[in-house]
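Lecture notes, unit on protein representations.

Consider one protein chain, 213 amino acids long.
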Amino acid sequence: MAELAKKFLLVLAYLSLNISLNMLNKWLLSIYGFRFPILLSVAHMTFTFLALAPLMCMKTHRDQHASTLKKQWLGLIGVGTFFAINVGMNNYSLLTISLSLNQVIRASIPVVTAVGAVFIEHKTPSRREFMSLLLLTGGVAVAVWEGSSSKHSANGIVMCLLATISNGLMMCSIGRLMSEKLDVLRMTFYTAPVTIFVLLPFYFRMEAAAYQE
């Protein structure tokens, strides 16, 4: 019972933090008027890396960095690239679509993960899981069709779909990309510089000139 309560609280905390972060991003990008989603993503990952740096410099973690990076560098690049596409395009979509539509589309991440698992991990969903995924896909399709009423919203939907696909592919391929299981703090610390490196060229190409004005 205690273990079930712990899992429930962890899920509740994740959902609360995820919704709060997306609400803050939506407010900043659409209401406050900060129209630079890629720069926002870069700033977010830079802060995350710097916030984790003191913890990662402690002896319990410091001795693991060299061996982990030597063995896992290729997988970390793959995961960081997937995450860059996910966070960058998701924030970009919030410029033109509502937060509710964004969250409905991102609810289809399990569908992408299940499809990816079939090809990458050779795992097929059960009949019950397949029916659940089918219903979820239908609900998302209806929401997307209802929300694509203008060119701007259509662009936002495409960006959100690409972010969702990237997130799902990251989840189902992480087992193949990584030969060692890392905790979430170390994974975030190692992939944050990769994410920043991937996003910076897009910032300089798409947003730097307008931001400097």
